[in-house]
UniProtKB/TrEMBL annotation:
Originating organism: Nothocercus nigrocapillus
Swiss-Prot/TrEMBL keywords: Membrane, Transmembrane, Transmembrane helix
Transmembrane feature ranges: 110-136
InterPro entries cross-referenced by the UniProt entry: FN3_dom, FN3_sf, Ig-like_fold
Chain intervals for the UniProt region annotation (Disordered): 142-224
Name of the protein in question: FNDC9 protein
Keyword Membrane: yes
Amino acid sequence: MGITIQNVTGNTAVVIWPKMASCADSFYSVMYHPSWNSVLSSYSRKSFHKEERVPTSRSSFVVENLTPLTTYILCVTCQSANPSRDQCRTFHTLQQDAASASSTKKELALGIWLTSSVLLLVIAAILLYGCLHLLCRRRRERPQGRNGTSEEGNGGKTRTKSAAQASRESGAQSQPPQDAEGKDPGGIQLATIIENPLACQEPMGRASKSQESMQTTGQFSATD
Protein backbone atom coordinates (compact mmCIF):
# COMPACT_ATOMS: atom_id res chain seq x y z
CA MET A 1 0.00 0.00 0.00
CA GLY A 2 1.61 3.22 -1.10
CA ILE A 3 1.14 5.75 1.72
CA THR A 4 2.83 9.13 1.36
CA ILE A 5 3.16 11.96 3.88
CA GLN A 6 3.55 15.49 2.57
CA ASN A 7 3.64 19.12 3.75
CA VAL A 8 5.08 18.25 7.15
CA THR A 9 5.37 21.24 9.53
CA GLY A 10 5.91 21.59 13.21
CA ASN A 11 2.21 20.92 13.96
CA THR A 12 0.60 19.40 10.87
CA ALA A 13 1.14 16.79 8.17
CA VAL A 14 -0.84 15.59 5.12
CA VAL A 15 -1.19 11.85 4.55
CA ILE A 16 -2.30 10.40 1.15
CA TRP A 17 -3.20 6.76 0.38
CA PRO A 18 -4.68 4.83 -2.55
CA LYS A 19 -8.28 3.73 -2.43
CA MET A 20 -9.02 0.19 -1.31
CA ALA A 21 -11.70 -1.84 -3.05
CA SER A 22 -12.51 -3.69 0.19
CA CYS A 23 -13.48 -0.40 1.92
CA ALA A 24 -16.03 0.73 -0.63
CA ASP A 25 -18.95 0.91 1.85
CA SER A 26 -16.98 1.46 5.08
CA PHE A 27 -14.34 3.94 6.38
CA TYR A 28 -10.57 4.33 6.70
CA SER A 29 -8.79 4.42 10.06
CA VAL A 30 -5.87 6.85 10.29
CA MET A 31 -3.79 5.99 13.37
CA TYR A 32 -0.65 7.81 14.58
CA HIS A 33 1.57 7.76 17.64
CA PRO A 34 4.60 9.88 18.75
CA SER A 35 8.03 8.52 19.74
CA TRP A 36 7.48 5.18 18.03
CA ASN A 37 9.78 2.27 18.93
CA SER A 38 9.29 -0.74 16.65
CA VAL A 39 11.20 -3.01 19.00
CA LEU A 40 9.05 -2.34 22.08
CA SER A 41 5.74 -1.57 20.32
CA SER A 42 3.60 -3.85 18.19
CA TYR A 43 1.34 -2.97 15.24
CA SER A 44 -1.90 -3.20 17.21
CA ARG A 45 -4.56 -0.53 17.43
CA LYS A 46 -4.08 -0.25 21.18
CA SER A 47 -0.50 0.92 20.71
CA PHE A 48 -1.48 4.06 18.81
CA HIS A 49 -1.99 7.37 20.52
CA LYS A 50 -4.86 8.69 18.33
CA GLU A 51 -7.19 7.35 15.70
CA GLU A 52 -9.27 9.25 13.16
CA ARG A 53 -12.09 7.86 10.98
CA VAL A 54 -12.25 9.13 7.39
CA PRO A 55 -15.08 8.41 4.88
CA THR A 56 -14.19 6.13 1.97
CA SER A 57 -14.94 8.93 -0.46
CA ARG A 58 -11.70 10.60 0.61
CA SER A 59 -8.10 9.43 0.13
CA SER A 60 -6.24 12.10 2.12
CA PHE A 61 -6.29 13.56 5.61
CA VAL A 62 -4.60 16.46 7.43
CA VAL A 63 -3.15 15.44 10.79
CA GLU A 64 -3.14 18.37 13.22
CA ASN A 65 -2.02 19.27 16.74
CA LEU A 66 1.34 17.54 16.39
CA THR A 67 4.35 18.25 18.58
CA PRO A 68 7.34 19.97 16.91
CA LEU A 69 10.62 18.08 16.56
CA THR A 70 8.96 14.71 17.22
CA THR A 71 9.03 11.40 15.31
CA TYR A 72 5.62 9.90 14.49
CA ILE A 73 4.38 6.68 12.99
CA LEU A 74 1.18 6.80 10.96
CA CYS A 75 -0.88 3.91 9.61
CA VAL A 76 -3.95 3.74 7.36
CA THR A 77 -6.20 0.68 7.43
CA CYS A 78 -9.63 -0.33 6.25
CA GLN A 79 -12.23 0.04 9.01
CA SER A 80 -10.76 -0.80 12.45
CA ALA A 81 -8.35 -3.60 11.48
CA ASN A 82 -4.88 -3.88 12.94
CA PRO A 83 -2.34 -2.32 10.57
CA SER A 84 0.50 -4.17 8.88
CA ARG A 85 4.03 -2.95 8.25
CA ASP A 86 3.35 -1.94 4.63
CA GLN A 87 0.38 0.22 5.76
CA CYS A 88 2.53 2.45 8.02
CA ARG A 89 5.00 5.30 7.52
CA THR A 90 7.21 7.29 9.89
CA PHE A 91 7.87 11.04 9.66
CA HIS A 92 9.56 13.72 11.71
CA THR A 93 7.90 17.06 12.47
CA LEU A 94 9.83 20.26 11.92
CA GLN A 95 10.64 23.07 14.28
CA GLN A 96 7.80 25.47 14.84
CA ASP A 97 8.35 28.52 12.65
CA ALA A 98 8.03 32.10 13.81
CA ALA A 99 4.88 32.73 11.81
CA SER A 100 2.99 29.85 13.40
CA ALA A 101 4.33 30.77 16.83
CA SER A 102 3.20 34.36 16.40
CA SER A 103 -0.19 33.22 15.12
CA THR A 104 -0.54 30.94 18.14
CA LYS A 105 0.36 33.79 20.44
CA LYS A 106 -2.10 36.05 18.66
CA GLU A 107 -4.84 33.49 19.01
CA LEU A 108 -4.06 33.09 22.70
CA ALA A 109 -4.02 36.86 23.23
CA LEU A 110 -7.27 37.22 21.29
CA GLY A 111 -8.91 34.54 23.41
CA ILE A 112 -7.76 36.22 26.62
CA TRP A 113 -8.95 39.62 25.36
CA LEU A 114 -12.37 38.26 24.38
CA THR A 115 -12.78 36.54 27.75
CA SER A 116 -11.80 39.67 29.69
CA SER A 117 -14.10 41.81 27.53
CA VAL A 118 -17.05 39.54 28.19
CA LEU A 119 -16.35 39.63 31.94
CA LEU A 120 -16.09 43.42 31.92
CA LEU A 121 -19.35 43.73 30.01
CA VAL A 122 -21.10 41.47 32.50
CA ILE A 123 -19.75 43.50 35.45
CA ALA A 124 -20.72 46.79 33.77
CA ALA A 125 -24.23 45.48 33.09
CA ILE A 126 -24.62 44.45 36.74
CA LEU A 127 -23.42 47.85 37.99
CA LEU A 128 -25.69 49.69 35.55
CA TYR A 129 -28.68 47.64 36.65
CA GLY A 130 -27.91 48.38 40.30
CA CYS A 131 -27.58 52.13 39.66
CA LEU A 132 -30.83 52.28 37.70
CA HIS A 133 -32.65 50.32 40.39
CA LEU A 134 -31.36 52.68 43.10
CA LEU A 135 -32.28 55.77 41.06
CA CYS A 136 -35.82 54.52 40.47
CA ARG A 137 -36.18 53.75 44.15
CA ARG A 138 -35.11 57.28 45.13
CA ARG A 139 -37.51 58.83 42.62
CA ARG A 140 -40.34 56.80 44.10
CA GLU A 141 -39.45 57.89 47.65
CA ARG A 142 -39.29 61.63 46.84
CA PRO A 143 -43.02 62.14 45.99
CA GLN A 144 -43.98 60.24 49.13
CA GLY A 145 -41.77 62.52 51.24
CA ARG A 146 -43.23 65.64 49.63
CA ASN A 147 -46.79 64.48 50.25
CA GLY A 148 -45.99 63.78 53.88
CA THR A 149 -44.39 67.23 54.31
CA SER A 150 -47.35 69.03 52.72
CA GLU A 151 -49.77 67.10 54.89
CA GLU A 152 -47.76 67.98 57.99
CA GLY A 153 -47.67 71.68 56.93
CA ASN A 154 -51.40 71.77 56.32
CA GLY A 155 -52.02 70.04 59.63
CA GLY A 156 -49.76 72.56 61.43
CA LYS A 157 -51.54 75.48 59.79
CA THR A 158 -54.91 74.04 60.72
CA ARG A 159 -53.78 73.51 64.26
CA THR A 160 -52.41 77.08 64.43
CA LYS A 161 -55.66 78.48 63.08
CA SER A 162 -57.75 76.46 65.50
CA ALA A 163 -55.52 77.55 68.40
CA ALA A 164 -55.83 81.21 67.33
CA GLN A 165 -59.59 80.92 67.04
CA ALA A 166 -59.80 79.26 70.46
CA SER A 167 -57.70 82.04 72.02
CA ARG A 168 -59.87 84.68 70.39
CA GLU A 169 -63.06 83.08 71.63
CA SER A 170 -61.67 82.70 75.17
CA GLY A 171 -60.56 86.39 75.13
CA ALA A 172 -63.95 87.48 73.94
CA GLN A 173 -65.65 85.51 76.72
CA SER A 174 -63.31 86.84 79.43
CA GLN A 175 -63.74 90.52 78.45
CA PRO A 176 -66.85 92.33 79.85
CA PRO A 177 -69.25 93.97 77.43
CA GLN A 178 -67.82 97.15 75.99
CA ASP A 179 -71.13 98.97 76.37
CA ALA A 180 -71.12 98.50 80.13
CA GLU A 181 -67.47 99.58 80.52
CA GLY A 182 -67.64 102.47 78.04
CA LYS A 183 -70.45 104.33 79.72
CA ASP A 184 -69.45 107.47 81.63
CA PRO A 185 -71.15 108.63 84.88
CA GLY A 186 -73.24 111.12 83.02
CA GLY A 187 -74.66 108.47 80.88
CA ILE A 188 -75.42 106.39 83.96
CA GLN A 189 -77.27 109.33 85.60
CA LEU A 190 -79.14 110.04 82.38
CA ALA A 191 -80.24 106.45 82.22
CA THR A 192 -81.27 106.57 85.86
CA ILE A 193 -83.28 109.72 85.28
CA ILE A 194 -84.97 108.28 82.27
CA GLU A 195 -85.80 105.10 84.12
CA ASN A 196 -87.00 106.95 87.32
CA PRO A 197 -88.68 110.23 86.33
CA LEU A 198 -90.19 110.64 89.83
CA ALA A 199 -86.75 110.79 91.36
CA CYS A 200 -86.07 113.80 89.16
CA GLN A 201 -89.34 115.58 90.03
CA GLU A 202 -88.88 115.27 93.80
CA PRO A 203 -85.80 117.45 94.08
CA MET A 204 -87.37 120.04 91.80
CA GLY A 205 -90.42 120.19 94.05
CA ARG A 206 -88.25 120.60 97.07
CA ALA A 207 -86.33 123.44 95.44
CA SER A 208 -89.55 125.32 94.59
CA LYS A 209 -90.80 124.94 98.13
CA SER A 210 -87.56 126.34 99.53
CA GLN A 211 -87.80 129.30 97.19
CA GLU A 212 -91.35 130.03 98.26
CA SER A 213 -90.37 129.85 101.91
CA MET A 214 -87.51 132.26 101.30
CA GLN A 215 -89.84 134.70 99.50
CA THR A 216 -92.32 134.65 102.36
CA THR A 217 -89.57 135.15 104.86
CA GLY A 218 -88.34 138.15 102.94
CA GLN A 219 -91.78 139.64 102.81
CA PHE A 220 -92.13 139.25 106.56
CA SER A 221 -88.84 140.89 107.19
CA ALA A 222 -89.73 143.86 104.91
CA THR A 223 -92.98 144.42 106.69
CA ASP A 224 -91.26 144.46 110.04
